[in-house]
Amino acid sequence: MPACIRLNTMRLHTQSSHRQSQPSMRALARALPRIATDLYRTSVRTNAAMPMVAAAEAKRTLEDMRFDNTFVRELPGDKDMSNTLRQVEDALYSRVQPTPTGTEPYTVAYSREVAELLDLDLRECERPEFALIMSGSAPLPGSDPYAQCYGGHQFGSWVGQLGDGRAITLGEIVNSRGQRWELQLKGAGKTPYSRRADGRAVMRSSVREFIASEAMAALGVPTTRALCIIGTGDNVYRDMFYNGNVQLEPGAVVCRVAPSFVRFGTFQLPVSRGGLQTDLVKLTVDYVIRHHYQHLLDVADDNARYVAFLREVVERTGRLAGLWQSLGFVHGVLNTDNMSILGLTIDYGPYGFMDNFDPSYTPNITDFSGRRYCYRNQPEACQWNCVMLANALFSAGLVGKEEAEEALGRYADEMLDTYNTRMAAKLGLKTADQTLNKELLTLMLNSQADFTNTFRALSYIPTQAPDILSPSPPPPPPAAAAAEDDTSQPSSSASGNGTSSS
User: Cys-Cys crosslink for 448: which of 128, 182, 356, 389, Cβ 3.0 to 4.6 Å?
Assistant: First the structure.
């Protein structure tokens, strides 16, 4: 097993019931759409996990997008309609409207490919109304906005209720291929789950999320997508390095797109509260299977279906971690509330791609001391999160202990198979050579080689290398050698300036 990947054999245990913008920044923001959109027009094609199919149907306007809001229609919601901070119980979401900034929003960038996924006419992205709607300053016809309620473990400790603190889901679009896509505005204002935050996002983090989402999709990594970045025209106070240096930054909203934003923590919170709220786990599992794991509906037995569901979530998560490791991608904050039930890369916060190969690399400055989520520990962190999900399903009575442990055993196989397959391809090999891979990574570590550029440089090595081990041909006879010496010297007429070439 490569030195940079560690996995523990984990066993299931019962989860305890714990309960003014600067002109230069504005100019940069306005220049980004031309740079980024041109890039994506030529490079971003499809996400391997969610293929794009060219549609012959007519594209839709903002006003006639086809909404089918199953999450709020089929699952229990918060009866309190006030947008106030509170503990939300017996509910999986709270209806909440985005909060307009009272300023003039503007479109920074949009993804043509994501617009096509939604059957959205590209001309709609150029309308003034587009920036208003996607910033939360105007309603989108057919939408039914809400914020999800969930909990989670953060850095290994249970923290209770979290929820969408600055993300508001507008609803679910169904495209002409029958694919379901949720539209979610990140940075559109406070929700009942905002805690001490302001519900806003800044331009720099929004640009990072937009670019990373579409780049990961182009690399074939399952991920949430990003339709657009909208500058709000407002300023937001932020302490970028958590050192007390609070400054105003340009505000922004990202419209994120995914089949579902349900997380591991969605299943954990009801179990932690116990009682009748545990029933929410089964309701949510049934909903996710009904809309996102429909092939499992063929499994007649409920228990077998739930075990198959857990197994597939674990396998998807293992494959995702293997892809991350092969790319040198570090998520940075793999709390259970940041783990997608669909096996997608979700919540691009302090992520990073390694430069110099360093197994202890983490882009998250709040993780510098413990490095729980560093590159080396990332696969193990994802595995631990899968155990926490299994605990929730086990505590809700949906899966048995031995069945859950068997499903969890699939993680290491899927992660390592994916990682080894990708690394073999990066080395130009048909099959994985773990010894070679380990030796290369050791050399990269010792020489501080750039992770991505090292593998990119391999493409410049000729595929037909000279056979340096073949015996040299015998020397020519003396006469032939003399003739070669005579002809090997160019005459004065052979050079353009009347001198012999050297």
Answer: 356
Give which of 157, 148, 221 is closest to 384, Cα–Cα. 157
Pairing, β 146-148 against β 93-95: antiparallel
To the query of whether residue 337 is one of the catalytic residues in this protein, the response is: yes
| From 78, 119, 234, 337, the catalytic residue | 337
- The number of beta carbons lying within 10 Å of the beta carbon of residue 451 is 20
Q: Is the dihedral of CA 168, 171, 175, 179 positive or negative?
A: positive
List, in sequence order, every residue forming a beta bridge with 335; answer none if it has no partner: none
Helix (H, G, I), strand (E, B) or coil at 235: strand
Convert the pLDDT of each residue in 162-188 to its tens digit. 999 999 999 999 999 999 999 999 999
Bridge partners (DSSP) of residue 109 are 229
What's the whole-model pTM score?
0.83
Shortest CA distance to 125 belongs to which of 111, 137, 139, 145?
111
Distance CA 457, CA 452 (A): 9
Q: Could you tell me the two tokens for 483?
A: 């003739």
Please give the structure tokens belonging to residue 61: 């306007």
